[in-house]
Design brief:
Mg(2+) binds at residues 71, 89, 91-92, 211. Its cofactor is Mg(2+). One of its GO terms (biological process) is signal transduction. InterPro entries: Inositol_monoP_metal-BS (IPR020583), Inositol_monophosphatase-like (IPR000760). The protein has 259 residues and is of the alpha+beta class. Helices cover 36% and strands 27% of the residues. It has 2 domains: 3-144, 2-Layer Sandwich (Fructose-1,6-Bisphosphatase, Chain A, domain 1); 153-257, D-Maltodextrin-Binding Protein, domain 2. The protein has helices spanning 3-27, 46-62, 94-99, 162-166, 172-178, 188-196, 209-221, 247-257; strands at residues 34-36, 43-45, 67-70, 84-92, 105-112, 115-123, 128-133, 137-140, 143-144, 157-160, 181-183, 202-207, 225-228, 240-245. Helix 1 packs antiparallel against helix 2 (46-62) and helix 6 (188-196) packs parallel to helix 7. It is globular, with a radius of gyration of 17 Å. The protein starts with a helix and ends with a helix. The relative contact order is 0.13.
């Protein structure tokens, strides 16, 4: 894909995100229709569904030959990464959205033949957009992202999944204790933004493609490591425990996981 085409896509997606954010904020204080999916802690609202339908319609009009993987099922059944594949998470952190009206994100990613081209993570309430890709670099609200310091686990805060810590899965308690402290934000997008901005040295959680699709692109360009929990390559369409960290913290965490 040529750079001029990538720049045009980037400009277009940012306009979708601005409109999408405005749509969500207009409805955030209205009465929500809340349903459960796999459990009482796995929620979906009418706003999740409406926002995904909005974004899917924008992608369909702009790129009709592509396929779309959306969390709420308004896209396509995507079983391979051939061609152009968009990945959409209309509200990442729905529990936060419902209970706090804060700490949630909108995420969009574009892959071509399995290679990340563009990724976007928008902190809706904070109005902070992390965006970019291999051809453009990574930007924080339009400014080049500062270089991420390669901090070891012992010198930084770590974002962890609550259930993984509670059950001490993959030695999560030891990982938390070796860090300066753990944080649980309840939104993959918010955690990934925090790692990209150097506020966390890493993040570990069970993630699905719409949770990590955009972040995988941005973190790769920023020089961070995003792998499976045992350090293997993370497939674009995989659903499993994911480890994101600085290179030093990634190495530290893999040592603890393997014990």
């Amino acid at each position: 894909m040529e750079i001029d085409e990538i720049k045009e896509i980037d400009k277009t997606v940012k306009s979708w995100l601005r409109e999408s954010r405005d749509n969500v904020l207009r409805k955030i204080d209205t009465r929500l229709t809340v349903n459960t999916k796999t459990s009482r802690k796995d929620l979906v609202t009418n706003i999740d569904k409406q926002n995904e339908q909005f974004l899917v319609s924008k992608i369909r009009d702009f790129d009709p030959e592509s396929r779309i993987l959306g969390e709420e099922g308004f896209g396509d059944k995507v079983v391979s990464t051939e061609g152009q594949v968009w990945i959409v998470d209309p509200i990442d952190g729905t529990m936060n959205f419902v209970k706090q009206r804060n700490h949630f994100a909108i995420m969009i990613a574009l892959y071509v033949d399995g290679e990340g081209v563009l990724g976007y993570i928008l902190d809706v309430i904070g109005n902070r957009l992390l965006s970019g890709g291999p051809a453009l670099g990574v930007f924080d609200n339009g400014h080049p992202l500062a270089e991420v310091v390669d901090t070891p686990l012992s010198n930084g805060l770590i974002g962890l999944s609550g259930p993984l810590v509670l059950h001490n899965t993959f030695n999560m308690v030891d990982i938390a204790q070796k860090s300066l402290g753990m944080r649980i934000y309840g939104s993959a997008g918010i955690d990934i933004i925090s790692v990209l901005r150097g506020e966390l040295v890493g993040y570990i959680s069970y993630l699905k493609p719409w949770d990590f699709g955009a972040g995988r692109i941005l973190c790769d360009v920023a020089g961070l490591e995003m792998t499976t929990i045992d350090g293997k390559q993370l497939g674009v369409l995989s659903s499993e425990p994911v480890l994101l960290a600085t290179r030093n913290a990634h190495r530290d965490i893999l040592t603890i996981v393997s014990q």
